[in-house]
Amino acid sequence: MHVMLDLETMGTDCHAAIVAIGAVLFEPDTGVMSSNFYRIVDLEDAAEYGKLDAGTVKWWLLQSEGARQIFAADEESVSLTRALVDFSAWLEEHQQHERDTPQVWGNGAGFDCVILRNAFESTGVPVPWKFWHERDVRTVVELGRSILGYDPKRDMPFDGVVHNALADAQHQVRYVNAIIQLLAER
Q: Which residues form the 3'-5' exoribonuclease Rv2179c-like domain (predicted)?
């Protein structure tokens, strides 16, 4: 079971406050996406468990109105603990059998997976994957660029709202699959 993860955060270090979690189940060899997960985390609650940095706050102010909607979604936002419990339940619901440990993909070896794992630990919610099952999108992208001359930032248009955690996760699935397909053809 492969899970593409994307977080929207209020910082860039390993304990950044999480304001949105987006994830999608997918098959890396086909690109088929089968289930989505999306939660907006209440900003005040996020700040209780993670760090905010001024540079990231300024960056958010410069993003599109669509991206900034997560800060106006009070009715939709939940506590970080609730979001993590829901995420774990979503993963468990889609496991075919007990041995089907999620392969969790993040965009950067030290970003999405690490920040989310730290959030699980900070809230006391058990981490629903093994650290050795973390995968890195940027490694695949670098293979695409260096071996194939394929750059998804240049060669693949974005569909959806940029910096929406779910749209970003779906986009990452599309370009990881495109690179895998191109590598398989070599």
A: 1-179
